[in-house]
Amino acid sequence: MADAKLKKAKVIFVLGGPGSGKGTQCEKIVAKYGFNHLSSGDLLRAEVESGSPRGKELQAIMEKGELVSLEIVLALIKDAMLKLVDKSPYFLIDGYPRELEQGTRFEAEVAGCHVVLYFEVTEEVMKQRLLKRGETSGRADDNEDTILQRLRTFTSKTEPVIKHYADKGKVIKVNASGTIDEVFGVVQQEFAKREIK
Ligand SMILES: Nc1nc2c(ncn2[C@@H]2O[C@H](COP(=O)(O)OP(=O)(O)O)[C@@H](O)[C@H]2O)c(=O)[nH]1
Ligand SMILES: Nc1ncnc2c1ncn2[C@@H]1O[C@H](COP(=O)(O)OP(=O)(O)O)[C@@H](O)[C@H]1O
Ligand SMILES: [Mg+2]
Known about the structure:
Mean pLDDT: 96
Structural class: alpha/beta
Strand content: 5-15%
Protein name: Adenylate kinase
Helix content: 55-70%
CATH architecture: 3-Layer(aba) Sandwich
Order of helices and strands: EHEHHHEHEHHEH
Shape: globular
Radius of gyration: 16 Å
Oligomer: single chain
Low-confidence stretches: none
Pfam families: ADK (PF00406)
Bound molecules: guanosine-5'-diphosphate, adenosine-5'-diphosphate, magnesium ion
Strand order of the largest sheet: 2-3-1-4-5
Catalytic activity: CDP + GTP = CTP + GDP; a ribonucleoside 5'-phosphate + ATP = a ribonucleoside 5'-diphosphate + ADP; dAMP + ATP = dADP + ADP; thiamine diphosphate + ADP = thiamine triphosphate + AMP
Subcellular location: Cytoplasm
CATH class: Alpha Beta
GO molecular function: AMP kinase activity; ATP binding; dAMP kinase activity; nucleoside diphosphate kinase activity
């Protein structure tokens, strides 16, 4: 169940397709605002790196560009949040929720959604950025076939999440096709409007 310590958490779900700029923009937000940043993908890759049997299962799913089990990713995020809650009440939860049930379970068991920060950019731009990132990232999922599957997964599973929160008036939609600094400029304007600081 929800942990009392997380009740005061102000959770910003950071969503967008693969290569939309979630990780890059979260780094800039952390540097300026000091918020906590948890990337579901990074937490999962750390589990893979650990060499655990569970890590091997996760790797196989991630290499196919599919979603790993809700229970695993929710537990990883909740545990990580508990370790950071005294640093800042704001949490950038990057790459989660990726399907509707993840959102409802998080809000029932961890904390409510303060706002969704959604980076919108065309599939072509996402694909080009990821192919370029793949040249240096060493990620098993930054290859053309897996990128295409991740894009399909985003469209089928995650876009409904964005609509769910947009229907509640909770989505900050940012056009993420400009330069990194242009996008971050818009993020700062949107945060100021909502007194997120
Ligand atoms: N031109 C441009 N490139 C970006 C921007 N944000 C991220 N990138 C690049 O696109 C790739 C994917 O960015 P990343 O933050 O990892 O996206 P994520 O997959 O959504 O976490 C990286 O190689 C970044 O350098 C942006 O706003 N403009
Ligand atoms: N919330 C989640 N639910 C299920 N699987 C996830 C989740 N977050 C990440 N993953 C898995 O990890 C992979 C990489 O995620 P991530 O690092 O967030 O990608 P990117 O930053 O490129 O959008 C996803 O393709 C998926 O396989
Ligand atoms: Mg990322």
